[in-house]
Specification:
alpha+beta, Adenoviral Proteinase, Chain, four-stranded mixed beta sheet, 4 strands, about 15% strand
Length: about 200
């Protein structure tokens, strides 16, 4: 899909949300939050994992992430072809890991904590201390494997960005997918409202 074109085609509504879609939608979330939320690029974690802190140190040279209300880090696991999302509450210094299967990757969490400590030390001269909270998702279904993981983290991020409860279900996903694609096309984000409220 050409995300710079406002016109929609039928195929747009069925495409999986890859890194291009995720980055554009996450940027809309950050913009709506009046930049209180900092969203890392979808390639950030891969670069951190494969190349180390020295390769990503300059990614935040023009922003103080420690003054943000929250950080969001999309994580792509190539071996499993799956997206996950890490949400860091900077006020409470807690971290939550969202995966469509409700899994938790301690290796990824340790790497992010290490990054935060190094980043804080390099920028401020002291280490960043935090607690980690494991948070499984509320989506449970025998058919969950059909769910596009890119769509999953976009929906999670949108809800978390406005402190909304995660009460959506798989039945909401087709409608959410259409709305997200439309939002990206229009460069304007709208709330994803689960059928629970309608």
């Amino acid at each position: 899909m050409d995300t710079t074109n406002n016109s929609m085609t039928d195929s747009d509504y069925y495409v999986c949300l890859n890194d291009t879609y995720i980055n554009k939608y996450m940027n809309l979330i950050a913009k709506r939050s009046a930049n209180k939320i900092y969203v890392f690029d979808s390639f950030f974690f891969t670069s951190l994992y494969e190349n180390g802190y020295s390769r990503v140190h300059n990614w935040t040279k023009n922003v103080d992430i420690f003054k943000k209300k929250a950080l969001m880090i999309p994580i792509y696991t190539r071996e499993e072809n799956r997206w996950s999302l890490v949400m860091i509450d900077m006020a409470n210094k807690t971290m939550r890991y969202y995966d469509k299967f409700g899994k938790y990757n301690p290796r990824n969490i340790r790497l992010i904590i290490k990054y935060l400590k190094l980043e804080h030390f390099m920028r401020k001269g002291t280490f960043f201390k935090k607690n980690v909270i494991r948070t499984p998702t509320n989506i449970c279904s025998s058919n969950i494997d059909i769910l596009d993981s890119g769509l999953f983290i976009c929906v999670i991020a949108e809800h978390l960005s406005r402190s909304a409860l995660l009460l959506f279900s798989l039945n909401d996903m087709k409608r959410f997918h259409k709305q997200i694609v439309c939002d990206i096309k229009c460069d304007k984000i709208s709330n994803l409202i689960p059928s629970f409220y309608t």
